[in-house]
Automatic annotation (TrEMBL):
UniProt: pyruvate binding residues: 55
InterPro entries: Aldolase_TIM (IPR013785), DapA-like (IPR002220)
UniProt GO MF annotations: 4-hydroxy-tetrahydrodipicolinate synthase activity
UniProt keywords, alphabetically: Lyase
E.C. designation(s): 4.3.3.7
PANTHER family xref list: 4-HYDROXY-2-OXOGLUTARATE ALDOLASE, MITOCHONDRIAL (PTHR12128:SF66), DIHYDRODIPICOLINATE SYNTHASE (PTHR12128)
Gene3D superfamilies recorded: Aldolase class I
Stated name of the protein: 4-hydroxy-tetrahydrodipicolinate synthase
Family, similarity comment: Belongs to the DapA family.
Family annotation (CDD domains): DHDPS-like
SUPFAM superfamilies assigned to the protein according to its UniProt record, in alphabetical order: Aldolase
Active-site residue numbers: 158, 186
Source organism (scientific name): Neomoorella glycerini
Length: 325
């Protein structure tokens, strides 16, 4: 069993980029680009990385692809920096006669693979299979209890419903926070400031051991100021330097510097995390091409809406204004 208390300490003032996978247009992984990308990010001031998450299209990868991605990052960042693995299943009700059984089986297979590879923690995708079902709350709790039983530190994932998440009521959160293996919770509510505030206050008041991890790319600075212990964001897939510096500035009470950096980071998010939101992955990959990290032919997301010329132009101009090119 991996020590959850030790991992909780790793989450203090932490910054984990959720890393994308550099795909070619034929849907294959460009391994040379992946090696270049992992070397680049290993040289950045990041705590570790989150693989197989939404940014990394984890639920769409084959078992073999997941294993390759994991070892690519482990080789690049070494054993001293943690790797968080996203785990779950994209099976939905009605896809098979035994859909729920298949959903649970796939989620456990992914979680067991992560554990066996040596993942430092599991980021549990919201079990949207149960959204709107009878006994939804009990099923959500049982699902997390099942994965927590593997003995690996767990990070809960509160994702807004429009992005494929599910609402966790205060009662559900209280049950989940009480699970011994739960190290923290990633909040990604996009534009629901009230939801983030409510969960932050619940943790502060009743569950101080649980670490609050912001996944709020569009309000990263604000959520850090509201008490996040760390960040796990797709925005960190590129240009992590200013984001880490912002987190550090707040922790060291250099608030003028914090605000200056927050305004820069907000501009980066405002040109990448826009509608259609699923396009953010290819937009982040495009930044990596502009910075010479990966070739243009490896900046394709086969599961997203693509990127327009107008988006490319806006991103390029923003990065030039921010002196990130």
């Amino acid at each position: 069993m991996r020590d959850v208390d030790v991992f909780r300490e790793r989450l203090r003032q932490s910054f984990f980029p959720a890393v994308p996978v550099p795909f070619r247009q034929d849907g294959t992984i460009d391994r040379l680009a992946q090696e270049s990308y992992s070397r680049y990010l290993a040289g950045q001031p990041v705590t570790g990385v989150a693989v197989w998450a939404h940014t990394g299209r984890g639920l769409f990868l084959t078992s073999e692809q997941r294993e390759y991605v994991y070892w690519s990052w482990r080789e690049a960042i070494g054993n001293d920096r943690p790797i968080i693995c996203g785990v779950g299943s994209r099976v939905s009700p009605g896809t098979a006669a035994d859909a729920e059984k298949l959903f649970l089986q796939q989620a456990m297979e992914m979680a067991e693979q992560a554990r066996n590879l040596g993942a430092d923690a599991l980021l549990v995708y919201p079990p949207t299979f149960y959204r709107g079902t009878i006994g939804q709350e009990e099923k959500i709790i049982a699902y997390h209890r099942m994965i927590a039983g593997l003995g690996v530190p767990v990070i809960l994932f509160y994702l807004y419903e429009a992005a494929g998440g599910i609402t966790y009521s205060p009662a559900v959160l209280q049950e989940l926070f009480a699970l011994p293996q739960v190290a923290g919770i990633k909040m990604a509510t996009l534009d629901s400031v009230m939801t983030y505030q409510d969960v932050a206050n619940l943790i502060r008041r009743d569950y101080p051991a649980v670490k609050l991890i912001t996944g709020e790319d569009r309000m990263l600075g604000y959520t850090i100021a509201l008490g996040a212990d760390g960040a796990l964001v797709g925005l960190g897939a590129a240009c992590p330097g200013p984001q880490v510096a912002m987190l550090k500035a707040f922790g060291e009470e250099r608030y003028e510097e914090f605000v200056r950096l927050m305004l820069q980071v907000d501009r980066l998010a405002e040109c990448t995390f826009v509608h259609p939101m699923e396009g953010y992955i290819q937009r982040m990959l495009y930044i990596l091409t502009l910075q010479g990290v990966i070739p243009a032919g490896a900046a394709y997301d086969p599961f997203g809406p693509g990127i327009t010329e107008a988006e490319r132009s806006h991103i390029r101009e923003t990065l030039q204004d921010l002196n990130l090119l």
